[in-house]
Amino acid sequence: MRAVVYDRPRSFAVQEVERPSAGPGQVVVDVDRAGVCGTDLHLHEGGFFAAFPLTPGHESTGVVREVGDGVGHVRVGQRVAVDNASACGHCPECSRGNHLFCEDFLSLGVNAPGGFAESLVSPAHKVYPADDLAAEVAVFAEPLACAVHGMDVLGLRPGADVLVVGAGTTGLLLAQLLLHGGAGRVTMAAPTAFKLALAESFGVDRVVPVTRDAEATARTLAALQPGGFDVTVDVTGAAAVVATLPALTATNGTVFVYGMCDEDARIPLSPYDVFRRQLTVRGSFAQVDCMDRSLAWLRSGRIRTDGLVTHRFPLAEYGTALETLRSDPTSLKVLVDPTA
Fold first, then answer.
1. What is the CATH number of the domain that holds 185?
2. Which of 26, 257, 310, 321 could crosslink 68 through cysteines, CB 3.0-4.6 Å?
3. Mean of the pLDDT values across residues 274-298?
4. Domain assignment of residue 93, given as a range
């Protein structure tokens, strides 16, 4: 079968590899949609605990090709969504309930072969029936699961006034969860008009056109709301943006770091400001065990994905897909179709 294979950071090829088979408690899925996201850009550079050689792709849906012994909840030919994240359940972190920080964390597309391939093999308990969803809805199950985990971490107070900076795919998914999860108002700031229009169509209360200059954006938002926001959220993954958030956060408010910055990025922070105004700073890392709720949201129709997919590429054009996500301002969710 064909798969994207990295032998080291920034060095990949689409090549023939052996198709996986299903052992006991495993499922082989023929992938027909795999999402490209900002994490893949970090993996391309060797970040985010990438293990080489690597076949990336952590947002996958497809059709079951083979089931191993002991698997009864999915059948051959059924559409499924794949949760790429698995914890061992036995290490010290797992024994404390910290499954997301498992010492033997398995992440398809990060430290194990993922979905930028014609087939992948997954632990069966991480494969979810999705035959009631269209492929281009089911493919959002993993990024939406990350947003569900983010809501768990945030612990949003009902009626909170929330600012989201950035209007990429993850931002638009998270904004919808904020709206349905108790926010009194959601404001979204971003530089791209069509993304803000999509946010409005999803119910975001207020959209603010800004530039890509973080300090100029902060001045615009500070003038808009001098008292600050109860919660400020970065979904851009830009450290310069994160650095502006404490000053935009109201007293006793929360700075929420949702986007992934570069590992070596640093920002200035006033400990006195955090102390005096009782600011809370929270981060949200990936997800584990949130896929069932993500799929429930997608099935409900309350979390919308229409308009999010902007580009589709065959497996052979993976490099173009990656560059489109990186540099094309008209892109939102970029998909790879290994069947094309």
1. 3.40.50.720
2. 26
3. 97
4. 2-140+305-337
Percent of the chain with pLDDT over 90: 99
Angle at the Cα of 188 (from 276 to 242), degrees rounded to 5? Answer: 45
Q: Is residue 46 part of a domain?
A: yes
Q: Is residue 293 part of a domain?
A: no
Q: Are residues 128 and 28 in the same domain?
A: yes
Residue 47 reports pLDDT greater than 90: no
By C-alpha distance, which of 212, 206, 199, 211 is closest to 229? 206
- One-letter amino acid at 142 equals E
Return the amino acid letter for 89. Answer: G
pLDDT digits (tens, 9 = 90+) for 48-59: 889 999 999 999
Task: Tell me the average pLDDT across 75-92.
Answer: 97
pTM, rounded to two decimals? 0.96
- The predicted pLDDT at position 7 comes to 97
- Alpha-carbon distance 182 to 130, whole Å? 28
Q: For every residue of the chain, which 3-state class applies, written as one string?
A: CEEEEEEECCEEEEEECCCCCCCCCEEEEEEEEEEECHHHHHHHCCCCCCCCCECCCCEEEEEEEEECCCCCCCCCCCEEEECCEECCCCCHHHHCCCHHHCCCCEEECCCECCCCECEEEEEHHHEEECCCCCHHHHCCHHHHHHHHHHHHHHCCCCCCEEEEECCCHHHHHHHHHHHHCCCCEEEEEECCHHHHHHHHHCCCCEEEECCCCHHHHHHHHHHHCCCCEEEEEECCCCHHHHHHHHHHEEEEEEEEECCCCCCCCCCCCCHHHHHHCCCEEEECCCCCCCHHHHHHHHHHCCCCCCCCEEEEEEHHHHHHHHHHHHHCCCCCEEEEECCC
Range 88-114 burial, b when 16+ CB lie within 10 A, else e: eeebebbeeeebbebeebbbbbbbbbb
For residue 193, give both structure tokens: 């008009």
